[in-house]
Amino acid sequence: MMKRAICLIPIMLWASGAAAQDAASEATRAAQAELAQRLPLDDPRDEANVLRGKIAEIPDGVITGKDGRIVWDRRPYDFLNRVKAPDTVNPSLWRQARLNAVHGLFEVVPDKIWQLRGYDLSVMTIIRGKTGWIVVDPLLSEETAAAGWKLFADTVEAKTGVLPIRAVIFSHSHSDHFGGVGGIVTPEQVKKDKIRIIAPHGFSEEATSENVLAGPAMGRRALYMFGAILAPGPTGQVDTGLGPKLSSGTIGYMEPTETVPARGATLTIDGLAFDFMDAGGTEAPAEFVFYIPAYKALHTTEVVTHNLHNVLTLRGAQVRDALRWSKVIDAMLLKWGGSAEVAMGSHHWPTWGTSEVRTLLTNQRDAYRYVHDRTLFLANRGATLHELADQTPEAAVQGSDFSTRGYYGTLNHDMKATYQRYFGWWDGNPANFNPLPPEESAPKYVALAGGPDKLLAAGKDAIAKGEYRWAAEMLNKLVFAAPDNQAARAALASAYDQLGYQAESGAWRNYYLAAAATLRGNAVAGGTSNGQSRSFISAIPTAVFFDSLATRFDAVKGAAQKGVFQFVMPDSKESVAVVVEGGVEFPRYGVTDAAPTATITLDRSTLDDVMLGQAQFPALMQSGAIRIEGDRMAFLSWFAMHPPADPRFNIVVP
To answer: Which of 226, 237, 361 is nearest to 300 (CA)?
Structure first.
């Protein structure tokens, strides 16, 4: 359970044989046709850029681990070969999915820069230095990074000769941009060959802690957001918008050897000048972008991609700053917009041509500024969180530039997130300040509607009229009032089907359709997940582990508990005093209490074994790997007050 609790992005498998999904309704087909007519879907420029420079690919896009387990497989996505979108997929998302589906090794700047695309959610970039290679963002999984590097070595190094990796750049603190580092270099190589690992300031803390405290809830919601419980297909998972999907290999970690400060810096890396600009607080808490003057190449990281990004991701995170986001892009435009001949990011495909790069930056800047300013314009005139988006048409630029469309983030939920950043979760109406929880209010709504049969009939009528949002709102009340009502679950699933089919955002589509699958019983309770390597677990700060442990303390059952439990870790020379009283557990990192209730001595490496799920406290105590002095029973009683979080909690049913 401990391993599951800290897992960043769990992946689950599909269970077939349950109720089938609905076909696209007439209202959905009409909505798809309207969008297809309104957008220039046949604009060939993105397809030309996606295919430009392709020199090799991994056969069938299949990558396996050392144990033979498949961690990446593009064969189930052959359905994307058809050009015209099926009625069950938003035609704009279909276009994006087909672009993201192109996989291989691509030459970005002749004989200077290459990218590996389509082998993970993210993109790995390889840059030629004076004597070797500089690798940027080595994907999420060690297995996909290793396979990508082999393709590069077999294709490029076969001609140039084998050269050493001189540096690895982690552009920001999300795991799909550093987790695969162990697939291209080992810690021994880093030390022996003095390989530089360069990251933005604050990287170490953010990279190893973002998902630890809230890991179970984020992981559970990520299953829905990324469509991990959906089968690939025209009525299932087609894309995430940001990239094809998540790989399911091993997430690793290596500590940076140096970081770029908040003021930015110009570094010479293997004889090549890199101009770094800080972008922390935009898409990630720790992030930078950079420019390579010699190659006239701008790396936009995840600040500029070929979609509107999340100001608040559906899986959960801290709200990002759309205003700063727009200002960082404008700073890039002012500094490099007149010189960059190619812009490439950590996702999607490059943009070539100085004029085209300027247009990309300008339009992306304007999209985030539009999100921010329209939110405050309306909020300052009384619009609330759930009113903002319905009062706001898409920005003018979104009708012509596909890079600004809501394939991942959306204008809708980005505006709500911006509202939340400034005003919090409440809309200002006292009726909504302390509402009844859904399980209590739902039966009252059902009674008010005249009973379950009438509410079900009203929901079905709304579906027949194509009013899917209203149908979902009504039927959700019925499902929460009577979760075993199979007719209600089926009707709500039908509403979710149509909402998912119409969604342009890959994340929205996945979430709607995953909810429908849950209601129909199509999702299995268990499955595979991304596993963290020891390098990743060891990098989690000890203070963060104990803060996470405190979130598991059962304050109700442990209300009478009182004491101080002193942890001592000889190998890492760390100490933590955990103070427990009044239903609160407070870890004091670096503190040694003068009179603890019990002293627990264990190595930090032993704690890593526990976090990896490779050892259990009782067995470690029996073996002597954990030594307890003082009130042993008090410690055991306190430790028992930390039940693991169940990552299988319900989302779309009570």
So the answer is: 361
Q: Which pLDDT score, from 0 to 100, does residue 531 have?
A: 61
Enumerate the β-bridge partners of residue 576. 567, 589
Rounded Cα gap, residues 393 and 344, in angstroms: 29
Distance of CA 270 to the CA centre of its chain: 32
> What dihedral angle (degrees, nearest 10) is formed by the CA atoms of 149, 154, 155, 160?
100
Averaging pLDDT over each range in 103-112, 556-565, 628-637, which range is the top one? 103-112
119, amino acid identity: Y
- One-letter amino acid of 109: V
Looking at the chain, the number of H-run helices and the number of E-run strands are 22, 23
**What's the CA gap between 177 and 346, in Å, rounded?**
8
For the stretch 50-97, pLDDT in tens is 999 999 999 999 999 988 999 999 999 999 999 999 999 999 999 999
Note the pLDDT tens digit of each residue in 417-433. 999 999 999 999 999 99
* Residues composing the chain: 654
36 CB burial (10 A radius; 0-12, 13-18, 19+)? middle
459-468: long-range contacts, CB 8 A cutoff, minimum separation 24: 459/488, 459/491, 459/492, 459/495, 460/491, 462/495, 463/25, 463/491, 463/494, 463/495, 463/498, 465/27, 466/25, 466/26, 466/27, 466/28, 466/30, 466/498, 468/27, 468/495, 468/498, 468/499, 468/502
CB count within 10 Å of CB 390 equals 10
Q: How far is CA 38 from CA 31, 49, 391, 399, 472, in A?
A: 11, 23, 20, 8, 27
Q: Which two tokens stand for residue 588?
A: 């004091």
pLDDT band at residue 532 under the 50/70/90 scheme:
low
Report how far residue 313's alpha carbon sits from residue 324's, in angstroms, rounded to the nearest whole number: 17
What letter does residue 403 receive in the DSSP assignment?
G
What local confidence, expressed as pLDDT, does residue 526 receive? 41
* Rounded CA separation 410/389 (Å): 10
> Confidence band (pLDDT; 50, 70, 90) for 530?
low
How far apart CA 566 and CA 551 sit, in angstroms, is 18
Burial of 69 (0-12, 13-18, 19+ CB in 10 A): exposed
Tokens of 584: 């609160």
Q: What is the mean pLDDT of residues 288-310?
A: 98
Reported as half-sphere exposure (CB side, CA atoms, 13 A), residue 471 has a value of: 24
Confidence label for 317 from pLDDT (cuts 50, 70 and 90): confident
Backbone angles phi, psi at 493, to 5 degrees: -60, -40
Q: Are 167 and 195 in contact (CB under 8 A)?
A: yes
CB 539 within 8 Å of CB 257: no
Within its chain, how far is the Cα of 20 from the centroid? 29
Q: Give pLDDT tens digits for 143-163.
A: 999 999 999 999 999 998 999
Q: What's the chain's average pLDDT?
A: 92
Q: Identify the DSSP state of 614.
A: S
pLDDT of 215-266, one tens digit each?
A: 788 888 999 999 999 999 999 999 999 999 999 999 999 999 999 999 999 9
d(CA 552, CA 295): 51
